[in-house]
Amino acid sequence: DAFDSMIYDPLAQNGDVSELLNYVDEIAVQSRYIGVQPTDKVIGLSTCAEAETNGRVVIFGRLDRMS
Known InterPro entries for this protein (predicted)? Predict the structure, then answer.
């Protein structure tokens, strides 16, 4: 849902993504364990379809520093 504040309000997390990670794990249709920690930087990318309010796909991933 585009109005899901847990997904679409990044400022609510205050730097700790534990609650978001748990929530995403509960509602995910597909997931893969990659060892994300609460202190990691997480990015979410969302599609937008005009036809459906709840027709979105959101992909989350961990940002890793490249050396």
Answer: Sortase_dom-sf
